[in-house]
Amino acid sequence: MLRYISLLLLFFPACFAAPGVTPVAKFHKVGFRTLGQWHVEDKLRLDVNVWYPSTHSPRVLNYDPWTIVAALEGRPAEDRFPLLLLSHDSDGTRFSYHDTAARLASLGFVVASITHSGDGMYNMDTLFSLAQFQSRLREISAMLDMLLENPQVEQIIDRNRVGLIGFGAGAATALLIGGALPDCGGWSDYCKRAGVSDSYCAPWADKRISSLCAKLPLEKSPADPRIKAIAAVAPGYGMLFSQDSFRWFYPPLLLVSAERDSINPPALHAAVLNLLLYSKARYTTLEGADAASLMAICPDSMSDDLPELCRSVSPAERSAIHQRLYNLLADFFLHYLGSKNLPVIPAPPDLKKREEPSLESEPERRRQRRSR
């Protein structure tokens, strides 16, 4: 009997009331489909994976070099579910966090992940530039539009319950979508504090970031009030923000630090952002994790070519890190998107007037901040 319970906990841990996890009523099978869209005039290509609750049994699916387990175009479960958008790190793709996406879909979320052009595993042309964020913002917005209009998936999405998960550069992008305004408040002395070996301080990266900073402030807020809750995991670009950057940041925020992240050291990024946010975030650290360990296990064909990405931690360590991450994300999004009292997000500010928008009421605003 004990062995049987152990197997259940191994394969269906989200069904049990583990510490820090909101219990759920049902564990769903997971469906999967891919969506694509090409905007000729805007030269905008969208390649999106969608995981969702399904009534069909999963099977092994091969998307070379990735192998995932889901019901290909399986019949959706009959309901409307919260939608979570996923933005990968600069060395990722729409498949890189497929296990996290599938786990959240099993809990009753529709999860959509996009491959970012010019900032991913196969092309990093826009790295450390303003174009990196402009492109990501445009693609995330277009992905959300596509999902809410696509007849194959819009019927299972609750358009009033939309969240965003960002990893690395995707986490910094998520902060912008939440209303943060970059002002490079920490860039002037960043390399003195970080050291010349820091990725942001290489001569070519330094030049690009300095060029990015010269183009600020933004003339238009990047905030999207359709996004009701945000999780920023192992965020980078902490030097682009100051405390004033978060004046118009309203969504509930889960800020997750990866303890061993060498690309975006927590002391210079996640921890700094937490201080700047000034109690607006839930802040926690994944012990023993680096940025690469947050991704799914690499396919065999990638492991030898990318050991720094695929073998930074042992399989057992990766499993433990992922379980903790699943719990954090599930608890956060079930709390904010699974209740009747959704966060109230005001319209983006008019940056030309620099006037602070108001929520429905100041008491409601104070209540939301206390609940975080």
Could you list some keywords that capture this structure?
disordered N terminus, 10-stranded mixed beta sheet, Rossmann fold, globular
SSE topology:
Layout: H1 2-11, E1 29-39, E2 44-54, E3 59-63, E4 66-72, E5 81-87, H2 98-106, E6 110-114, H3 130-149, E7 157-167, H4 169-177, H5 190-194, H6 203-214, E8 229-233, E9 253-258, H7 270-277, E10 281-286, H8 300-303, H9 307-310, H10 315-337, H11 362-371
Parallel strand pairs: 1-4, 5-6, 5-7, 7-8, 8-9, 9-10
Antiparallel strand pairs: 1-2, 2-6, 3-4
Structure description:
By secondary structure, the protein is an alpha/beta fold. The chain has a single domain, classed as Alpha/Beta hydrolase fold, catalytic domain (Rossmann fold). It is 31% helix and 20% strand. The protein is built from eleven helices and ten strands. Strands 3-4-1-2-6-5-7-8-9-10 form a ten-stranded mixed β-sheet, with helices on both faces. The longest helix is centred in the last third of the chain and has 23 residues. The chain is globular.
